[in-house]
Design a protein that fits this description.
The complex is a heterodimer of chains A (114) and B (112).
Chain A lengths: L2 E5 L2 E5 L4 E8 L4 E8 L5 E7 L5 E3 L5 E5 L4 E6 L8 E9 L7 E2 L3 E6 L1
Parallel strand pairs in A: 2-11
Antiparallel strand pairs in A: 1-3, 3-8, 4-5, 4-9, 6-7, 7-8, 9-10, 9-11
Chain B lengths: L3 E4 L2 E4 L5 E7 L5 E7 L5 E9 L2 E4 L6 E3 L9 E3 L8 E8 L7 E2 L3 E5 L1
Parallel strand pairs in B: 2-11
Antiparallel strand pairs in B: 1-3, 3-8, 4-5, 4-9, 5-6, 7-8, 9-10, 9-11
Classes of the chains: A mainly beta (114), B mainly beta (112).
Amino acid sequence: AQSVTQLGSHVSVSEGALVLLRCNYSSSVPPYLFWYVQYPNQGLQLLLKYTSAATLVKGINGFEAEFKKSETSFHLTKPSAHMSDAAEYFCAVSAQGGSEKLVFGKGTKLTVNP
Amino acid sequence: NAGVTQTPKFRILKIGQSMTLQCTQDMNHNYMYWYRQDPGMGLKLIYYSVGAGITDKGEVPNGYNVSRSTTEDFPLRLELAAPSQTSVYFCASSQLAYETQYFGPGTRLLVL
């Protein structure tokens, strides 16, 4: 079975600073990994996903994530935070080619200070 | 494409009342899901469906029922509303079980 741990339920950064949101996963088979973003009072939308093609994945709005098998991690980064990045971010894992559904982390709320 | 649509956006129910949350997708996806989201708890899967006529329980199915008579629609039924069902409900769909899920805008439900 798959599981996801997001370290830090709240992260606060200054505008222009590096954004780093941490995600560690557990999977007995090669995983698919996802980051979703949820803006206030909206549904979740896909930010990026890892499907084994490349370990460094680029997503929308300047975000990227790196799959590190040895560390079982898929941390989300953005070099320079913008006020519009304030949202809640969810990491999710599933099993490649399997019947397992996505398993979501509990989310990290990102605050961007001016 | 509208994607995944949900109605209503917001509803207040009295304890013991019933209601149906509607969900429709126009992407011809096989898989559909219902989640509830509570503050600090992430998303919890209530029910899911792998195709018309086939549904299965998720992590928190008690107090809910679903049906899937068509590929497009996946309504969620609350029979006897309880305060513990106050939450935000999201419907999602995907083509394959392990692939990207597409979410609706959510239904905010308050049970008093």
